[in-house]
Write a structure and sequence with these properties.
Length: 227
């Protein structure tokens, strides 16, 4: 039975690759509007966990319920819909298309969702203004700084007004000042739009922003503050 506030629930989720167990029997509840930070040593399964929530990898066993839907059972068409309306993903290493301008990169989800060009352009202008990259829109990613590229990735993830944003190590290539800036931005967005944000990180700074701090160790997950 889902509590009204739980936007994500993992029930007995395990993941193995070949014979290696990565995560074992994970039970986890995430409420709407939380800033969830997942920490742990390199290779502990942070990315794997995010990829399962983002439907990029299947679970080996157990179930994941997002926004009241069991994602194990979604049909292909429902998955497309789900990506449009529920989930925004910020990939590790930013992954902007190098040959497209910042504006074109931000608008990509809108193209796939068949949003008319004028509406897309309006949304790009609005987001770039909110995220402080208006003057970079015509430039290529290679002409922008790391912090600006990360902001463009956030704008792209926000383009279709998702309920959840998942970010895998979004600050791994940034210095301390830019890391702080990007995390502040994500936090502002979370509060302003009541979006649930889930971030994996090695960086202790990130933990300062967490409303729910999780730690993965020995294939299990621990809620650090709920002790």
């Amino acid at each position: 039975e889902l509590k009204k506030m739980d936007i994500i629930q993992l029930n007995g989720v395990s993941k193995s690759f070949k014979n290696k167990v990565i995560l074992r029997d994970i039970n986890l509840n995430i409420k709407k509007g939380e800033f969830v930070v997942i920490m742990g040593e390199s290779g502990c399964g942070k990315t794997t966990l995010l990829n399962m929530i983002a439907m990029l990898e299947p679970v080996s066993s157990g179930e994941i319920i997002i926004d009241t839907k069991n994602i194990n059972h979604l049909k292909k068409s429902e998955k497309v819909d789900f990506y449009r309306n529920t989930l925004g993903v910020i990939f590790q290493g930013s992954l902007l298309q190098p040959h497209l301008s910042i504006a074109e990169n931000i608008a990509l989800p809108g193209i796939f969702a068949k949003i008319p060009k004028d509406k897309r352009e309006q949304r790009v202008l609005q987001l770039s203004k909110e995220l402080g990259i208006s003057e970079k829109l015509k430039e290529l990613p290679s002409e922008a700084s790391g912090g600006q590229v990360e902001r463009a990735c956030i704008a792209r993830a926000l383009f279709l007004n998702p309920k959840i944003i998942i970010a895998d190590e979004p600050t791994s290539s940034l210095d301390e000042e830019n890391t702080n800036n990007v995390l502040h931005l994500l936090d502002q967005i979370r509060v302003q739009y009541n979006i649930t944000i889930i971030v994996s990180s090695h960086n202790r700074l990130t933990a300062n922003f967490a409303t729910q701090l999780l730690y993965i160790k020995d294939q299990s997950i621990y809620d650090v503050r709920n002790s």
